[in-house]
Amino acid sequence: MHKNLRSFIEVLRRENELLEIEAEVDPYLELAEIHRCVIEEQGKALLFKNVKKSKFPVVTNLFGTARRIDLGFGKNPQELVRKAVEMVEVLLPPKPKELWNYRNLALTALKLGTKKVSKAPVLEVSQNPVNLAELPILTTWQEDGGAFITLPLVYTESASSGKHNLGMYRIQRFDERITGIHWQIGKGGGFHYHEAEKLNQSLPVTIFLGGAPAMILSAIAPLPEDVP
Q1: CA dist 94 to 8, 60, 91, 106, Å?
Q2: Measured between alpha carbons, how far is 208 from 137 in angstroms, rounded to an integer?
């Protein structure tokens, strides 16, 4: 299991599954078109090191082939998600027989979760005031309304219960400090926003770019609501 995205990229590099591009590439249409051409040919993952008007790199096509999916998530991730969903539905409320039937997956689940720490790599670099124009956010189509973040990990908490959700919702950059989020109807983040709106409260949101493959998978997995 990859601890972070860096370790996964290093595996791709070692397995000759990564193409590193030094030439300057424009995040407006050009980068996305290169990506489309490569993925159409079942090509390698792409690491763009020189994105126009940004000091940050961009990596794409991480999971564009079955082999890279295996490298990122392990063998047969669809089956793992299916079993996880099935386990949650069967084990609520938990019964001894069902617990025994899912003992291997349950033991793995017990090792997962979150913990509070005083410092972490994600907090090593900060910017105040924020300038979103420095991020290499892509415009991928001529008729798009602007630049969009298409693979963000979006963390929210319920305003009433405190229960949390990690989802993936398309985010549009409006200017240097403001974005819009496409809350999907029927998804955890959308529920949290609707709940906060009814309470006339703002909803704190954490958006994380570049998460570990397992985090990306968990954000899009069709798990029941309120699963930790």
Answers
A1: 35, 41, 4, 11
A2: 13
- DSSP structure class, residue 194: H
* Residue 100 tokens, joined: 């025994």
Averaged pLDDT score across all residues of the chain = 86
What's the pTM value of the predicted model, to 2 decimals? 0.82
Top pLDDT among 98 and 12 is at 12
Whether the Cβ atoms of residue 20 and residue 49 lie closer than 8 Å to each other? yes
Instruction: State the alpha helices, DSSP H only, in 41-95.
Output: 66-73, 77-90
Q: Which long-range contacts (CB under 8 A, 24 or more apart) does 138-144 make?
A: 138/27, 138/28, 138/31, 138/32, 138/58, 139/27, 139/28, 139/29, 139/32, 140/29, 140/32, 141/29, 141/32, 142/29
Closest CA to 189 of 162, 212, 165: 165
Output the CA–CA distances (angstroms, integers) from residue 174 to 106, 180, 206, in the order listed: 43, 7, 17
The model's pLDDT over 2-44, given as tens digits with 9 standing for 90+, comes to 889 999 999 999 999 999 999 999 999 999 999 999 999 999 9
SS3 31: helix
CB contact set of 50 (below 8 Å; sequence gap of 6+)? 21, 22, 23, 24, 25
Kindly list the domain boundaries of the chain, sorted by start residue: 121-220
Instruction: Read off the tokens for 3.
Output: 């601890």
| Cis status of the peptide bond prior to 228, with omega within 30 of 0 | no
Contact assessment for residue 139 and residue 148, using Cβ atoms and an 8 Å cutoff: yes
Distances (CA, A) of 48 to 35, 45, 132: 10, 10, 19
